[in-house]
Write a structure and sequence with these properties.
Length: 258
């Protein structure tokens, strides 16, 4: 009897042209996954797809109609989706009082929060078809739960993404789709370059991380029950303090992260 050829599991990764997304595509491909990178920069996507033997789709996830069209194209080729990684993100570090207008705030909200909503909705049928071998990983940020006056609009978008992720985990549990929230600390990426602090006691030195560590932590959750992971883990304690004493914690984070 001929040996049955097993199809590769399929992963869709947004924000795949650099940073966490690119590293996650590389890691998944090395483990035998078929990866579909999604981002706005076609040259980067094409190069990565050719390197790892994957596929790509050019899409700006801040536009719902584009997401729906792109998802339809993917599902026509791959009716079952085993993994969706919502990683596309846009940084905004201006203090609210210094911001010129609210257009940037709207753009950040559409990319960081609504992009995750639209991607999950557009690929939901494919994820349910792949269940119970289906996961959604939402790349959030420790900024969603830790006050920082330098990133109010960004933190708000990530807080919304985290709340959605928590709700989605409960909503999809009966359908066999697991949902994970990854909350990294400061990591130096193209989209989120970090300043080097000269302070010996800077929290950014103690609680920072890197692209490889975050990618490994995110993919370690695939196939496991829904979860919420801080990278590094010590950030969970900071988040708890921020909830208990938000004003005091906010002042401390502002000083120590500078």
């Amino acid at each position: 009897m001929p040996e049955q050829i097993m199809e590769r599991p399929v992963a869709v990764v947004t924000g795949a042209s650099s940073g966490f997304g690119e590293q996650i595509v590389r890691n998944l491909s090395a483990e035998g996954w078929l990866t579909i990178g999604v981002a706005r920069r076609e040259d980067r996507l094409r190069s990565l797809a050719e390197e790892v033997g994957g596929e790509y789709e050019v899409c700006d996830v801040s536009y719902q109609t584009d997401v729906e069209e792109m998802a339809g194209t993917i599902l026509s080729r791959h009716p079952a989706i085993n993994l969706l990684v919502n990683n596309a993100g846009e940084a905004m570090r201006d203090r609210f009082i210094e911001a010129g207008d609210c257009m940037d705030t709207e753009d950040v909200m559409k990319t960081n929060y609504l992009g995750s909503v639209w991607m999950a909705h557009a690929l939901l049928g494919g994820l349910i078809d792949a269940a119970p071998s289906a996961d959604i990983i939402n790349m959030v940020s420790a900024g969603a739960t830790i006050t920082n006056p330098h990133s109010g609009p960004y933190a708000a978008s990530k807080s919304a993404q985290l709340a959605f992720s928590r709700s989605l985990a409960a909503d999809l549990r009966p359908h066999g789709v697991r949902v994970h929230s990854i909350l990294p600390g400061k990591a130096d990426t193209e989209g989120h370059p970090q300043k080097t602090s000269s302070s010996f006691f800077s929290l950014s030195k103690v609680m920072g991380t890197d692209v490889e560590t975050v990618a490994d932590a995110a993919l370690s959750r695939v196939g496991k029950k829904s979860s919420e992971i801080y990278v590094p883990k010590i950030l969970r304690a900071v988040a708890v303090l921020n909830t208990a004493i938000p004003v005091t914690a906010g002042r401390a984070v502002d000083k120590l992260f500078s």
